[in-house]
Amino acid sequence: MFTKAKNLETAFRHVRSFTLLVIIGCIGFCCFAIYKSYQLVDETQDKVYILASGKVLEAYASERKENIPVEARDHVASFHRFFFTLDPDDKVIQFNLVKALYLADGSAKAQYENLKESGFYSSIISGNISQQISVDTVQVDTDDYPYRFHCVASQRIIRSTSIVTRRLVTEGFLRTVSRSDNNPHGFLIERWTTLENKDVNVQNR
């Protein structure tokens, strides 16, 4: 009888130990699953999926300060492309200039008004002239705010009789503003000035 009781007590201890091990294992597994779930959520929140031309592209979110140099350079390059890309079509000119003026302050508007008053855009249309620009380098100093930039670009002015290549050098400052559809980078160009705009090559057609 005592042997049976002892066997029952031993069996009970084994069952209790096994049950405790199972409970501890379940708790450990649940904690691991919760940890991995939170980790997966954090990773997926840093990913952005973009639909472009029918293709899904994956991008990663990051802090704005990490992207300031890249975004600032692209903002300056985009402004110059819109401002200086011209074709002999009034609607194309207006479309590009409206986009450009959203990216800069009154200093760009003043240059636009001066060119308009001098008949520059009218001569583009009447002379069937196209103007293209290629931004070579954009340097942005992010150590001091507002950020100073220096842009070097090449212009091609295509006329019916010649193609003129010009060297364009500009500079200005960038300050941060709210992002919008018209200003996706969230910068505004200030005190924009042209340092150099001269012919470097003339090719007869």
TrEMBL record:
Q: Does the keyword Transmembrane helix apply?
A: yes
Organism of derivation: Dyadobacter luticola
Keywords of this entry = Membrane, Transmembrane, Transmembrane helix
Keyword Transmembrane helix tagged: yes
InterPro entries membership: Conjug_transposon_TraK
Q: What is this protein called?
A: Conjugative transposon protein TraK
Q: Which gene encodes it?
A: traK
**Which parts pass through the membrane?**
20-38
